[in-house]
Every structure is written in structure tokens, then in C-alpha cells.
# Entry
Amino acid sequence: MAEVETSREGAVLTITLNRPEVLNAFNAAMHKALAGALKEAGDLAVRAVVLTGAGRGFCVGQDLTEFRESSGDIGSRLRENYHPNVLAIRRLEKPVIAAVNGAAAGAGLSIACACDIRLAADSASFVPAFINIGLIPDSGGSYFVTRLLGYARAFEWMTSGRKLSAAEAHAWGLVSEVVEGEQLAERSAEVAAQLAAMPTRGVGMTKRLFDRAATSALEEQLELEAQLQTTATQTDDFKEGVAAFLEKREPRFTGA
Ligand code: T3D
# Structure
């Protein structure tokens, strides 16, 4: 059984974490398989990605059975296994939707927060599990959660270890939408298909801009906007968008 499965529907790639018996906790094989799937997501024919979990969990972070003997060199494991996949999600210049079907805990929560959009099943939960075992947020958890929620709420939550329901996560703006469990796959596919039909280069460059905005000075951000807008005007989708507007018809974007 593959630790990660991929499937394609048109321009949408769905990546499914697949260790359901442990709520898709990460082991070495799952890290490697996720890296492979994220590489596949770089294919130009893929214009949106859905990341979800098999069974009743999304992903509960590190497989804690690997800590039974000793924690080992955790810093090296983070650098070698978690960081490349978090960076791969952010560097993909296309939208990545986390379809959070169940518990997202520890590094699984960080991965969900590294995605561009989160949709949740009503049964999903969000657990900053690190602190419950004496650890600190890793795999980008401290970076993404503070940006998504603001310092005060992020600090209170991440140091409490409190499980957040899907409804609470929605009220906090952590997830965009909550749907009934059995409708999550269909709704995620629908949102992904809508995004995949947009000008992909423009969507991707918007993602790059937003990432840089977190740390840029205004002058730097204005300059990056000018550079990327120059690139955007060279795309086929820009030509098509303007032509469609002038001809009073719906645009047909190709992602080129
Ligand atoms: O080492 C490194 O590389 C560094 C990276 C560290 C980053 C981290 O992610 S640290 C945080 C690790 N994650 C956790 O601490 C989460 C632990 N899990 C939980 O707190 C609970 O499972 C949940 C609140 C998420 C869900 O609770 P519930 O009641 O819905 O499910 P459950 O019964 O606890 O879990 C179902 C099964 O999955 C169960 O196995 P069993 O009893 O049916 O055989 C449980 O042991 C297993 N499971 C859940 N989480 C993990 C796990 N097995 C291994 N590792 C887990 N993280």
C-alpha cells in the first residue's frame, strides 16, 4: 500500500496521505512519498492541487511510535524530511487546497496551514499537539499560524494544546468553509477546478507576492509587484483576458 496516493481529474491533482490506521502520521516513507507527489504537482498540466488524508484523519504529525526509544536527532529529521515538503508547497506556483477531512495535529496542522486554502469537514479538528508533549510548533507552524491568526490568538491557542473544532476554526478564519464530511471531496474538487480554470501564472505569482509581503519593506514589495506584473502581461492568459473583456465573452484561460 502506497503511503501517499495521487490522482488526476483534468488539471487538478489530488494528493492523499495514506496511513489511515495512525490518522496519517508521518513516517520516513510518507515524507518521501509526499515529496514525490509534490514533484508531480509541478507538472505544467497541473493547475491546482488538493491535499487530503485517507480515513478519518487528515494528518497527525510525527509518528510518535518512532519516539518510543529516543527522540533521536529531531533537528536533522525536521531539516531533511519536513522542511523540503513545506517549502515545496510554498514554492509551487499554483494553489494548494488542504481538504481537512479529520484531525490535523502537530506537523499535520503545520502542513494544513502551509496550504493556500483550507476547507474542512464538519468532523475535522485542529490540534496544536506539540505543546501537549513538551515540543514547540515546527514545520512552519510558528510561521503560518501567527500569520493566519495574529500573535495573540496564535500564542494562546498553540500554548494551550486545545483541540479546535471545524466550526471554531471557521469562526477564527483558519478555514474558509466547513461542509458535511461526505461532501468534502466533492466540494474540494469543485473549488480546485474553479481555481484551475483561472490564469495559473497570475495565481502563482499572487502566491509568491503574498509570501514575500510578510517580510518585505513597502519599496521592495512595490518593485516585486512591478516585475511580476511585467511577467503577467507577457502571458497568453493576459491576452485572452483582455480580448474576452473587449469581445464581451467569457475568457478561456489555459494557464500559459
Ligand atoms: O521527529 C520529528 O521528525 C519531529 C517532528 C515533530 C512534529 C510533530 O508532529 S510533534 C506532534 C505529534 N502529534 C501528536 O502529538 C498527535 C497525537 N495524537 C493525538 O493527540 C490524537 O490522536 C488526536 C487528538 C489527533 C486524535 O484523537 P482521536 O481520539 O480522534 O484518535 P486516537 O484514538 O488518539 O488515534 C487513532 C489511532 O492513531 C490510535 O492508534 P490505535 O490505538 O487505534 O492503535 C493512535 O495511537 C494513533 N495515532 C494518533 N496520533 C498518532 C498516532 N500514532 C502515532 N503517532 C501519532 N502522532
User: Anything to note?
Assistant: The domain at 200-246 is CATH 1.10.12 (Lyase 2-enoyl-coa Hydratase; Chain  A, domain 2).
